[in-house]
Amino acid sequence: MNTRNLFRVFNRPVILNCICKRDKGYKIVQRPDPKTLKMPNLADAPSIMTIIKEKQRLNGPLTVAEYMHIVITNPTEGYYEKKDVIGETGDFITSPEISQLFGEILAVWFYAETQKMSPGKPLQIVELGPGKATLLIDILRVLNRYGYKAPDLTLHLVEISTAMQVAQANRLCVSHRETDLESPHNREGETVSGIKVYWYNDLKKVPNNFSWYIAHEFFDVLPIHKFEKTEEGWREVLIDLDENDKLRYRISANETQATRVLVRPPLDAGDRKALEISPRSLGIARQLANRVDQFGGIALIADYGHTGEKEDTFRAFHKHKIVDPLENPGMADLTADVDFSQLRLAASMTPGDENYALVVGPVAQMEFLQRMQANARLQVLVDNAKTENDKEKIEAAYDMLVNPTKMGERFKFMAFYPSGMAQILEKYPPLGFSTPK
Question: Which family does it belong to (predicted)?
Answer without folding.
Answer: Belongs to the NDUFAF7 family.
